[in-house]
Amino acid sequence: KYNRFIETPLAVEAMQQDINYVERNLWKMHPDLFLYIGEDQLKTKFDSLRSTIRQPLLPNQFQLALAAVLSQVRQGHMTLSPLISKFDPKGKDKVRYQKSKGPFSQLGFHWQENTLYLSKNGTADSTLIVGSKILAIEGIQPQNLYTKYRPSFTSDGYNTTFIDQAFERLLPRYYQLELGYRDSIAVVFSCADSTYERFVVRRFEAPEQKGKVGTNHAATEKPNKKPSEKKDKQIEKKSDTKKQRKIFGYNTNLKRMSKQLSFPVKGDSSIALLKVVDFSYGRPKEAYRRIFDRLELNSVQYLILDLRGNLGGRLSDVRELYSYLVEADKFQFVQPAVITSKFNLPFYQVKGLPGWSYPVLSPFIIPSAVVSWAKTFSKDGINYTHLTGSKIEKSKANRYRGDLFVLIDGGTFSAASLIATNLKVGKRAVFFGEETGGAASGTVAGVLPVLKLPNSHLRWRFGLMDVKPYYHVSEAGRGVMPDVSIVRNVDDVFKGKDPVLDKVLKIIKRQ
């Protein structure tokens, strides 16, 4: 039924109603709608869209048209997602497919300078060479996908460094929209002067092999270690890993810890590297306490904070990190967020939930709405709400006071850009890399309801709060700029070189 709906054209009147629905809610609830585009300009774009919808369109054709208008608002958190066809195998096949890896999940992609490269080979085919150019997948060139889908998403403001990384992440989705659900794909590669084609097929988990009758497994064990002791150690190691993941967070997409502390120079514990992949996972209070206790124990003098590729996450997480880095005894991380309405905010926080859930969740929704409303206030005719970090707090007693270097790039977004702004404008750190993907002046996020459009069933996400860092930035629409600009080229990426980190280490060595 769902897949049939995707292939059923929408009536013109139905699409017009959805356009009106989006426009009405956007004007009503977006707290900074005309930051990057004038009101008359945006209204003209909506009117123009309405006038061009003169014949039935498929839901995803309509999505491209409407998303292109929404992207003109230039707020990266706002998205209009297409409808992805579903594949629902039955019986034994369902279990097999759940444990399988599709063709796209076995490949990694890197998009740079309008060219797509293979960045990871997770297949069993060793002839796929990492670093090869991908010319086409099932006859579709990636450049054509970029041209088609690029108007449907945006960064914050006028930044461009975010775009390539966003397209890179969204690429498998775009191919699925074009090709549907596939168990195999034909990929044309180019490496050096040769072009070659390979088929990437779905990998199913091999069935468990039972031990052969008569095999003495105990004979393979070392004589001085009992099987039970080995098993106990394995369980203990697994338990420790699980505990570490709970504390420091584990990003399942990247398959790495969210917060990783290392010492990049062998034999020198005075230089530390803290890689924060995201602010979404783990227990930040315990994680940062452990990390900064270790920095103090090792008498670290130079700390490198790597925020590259960090798309943000929870304010409570990033605020906790900032409390260990700020120099002053007290700090404020963000300003109270601007909202359009004190009374509509609690309503929109739960808008988009299934209808049946309201009676079930009402014991939680009502108290939450009261708490949300209690955090709001008005000043000079503008409505605000308090956020985590919008009030003055004490800095950590064991905060880091040494030299701080921050690595940033186009993937540094949202909450990661907020801390970057505070550290940069507060003159706490020296920045290396490239302009952040998130705007230095703040972003519209905080609470992000996902509304289902009445007729097309497209899911539309947008922010309700204008979240700004504590330090004011006058220029809107640009990211945090590096003090030392360094961009990794394609050769650096595939040879595992990191010229940004290398530059910082050279400067530290000179000091």
Cα distance spanning the termini: 66 Å
Proportion of β residues? 15-25%
Overall mean pLDDT stands at 90
**How many DSSP helices?**
15
What does the largest sheet look like? 6 strands, mixed
What fold name goes in the CATH topology slot of the largest domain?
2-enoyl-CoA Hydratase, Chain A, domain 1
Radius of gyration: 26 Å
**What's the number of structural domains?**
4
In CATH, the homologous superfamily of the largest domain goes by the name 2-enoyl-CoA Hydratase, Chain A, domain 1
Tally of DSSP β-strands: 23
Give, in spatial order, the strands making up the sheet with the most strands: 9-10-11-17-18-23
The name of the CATH architecture of the largest domain is Alpha-Beta Complex
| Global outline | globular
CATH class of the largest domain: Alpha Beta
Helix content: 25-40%
- Uncertain spans, ≥5 residues at pLDDT below 50? 210-222
User: What structural category arises from helix and sheet content?
Assistant: alpha+beta
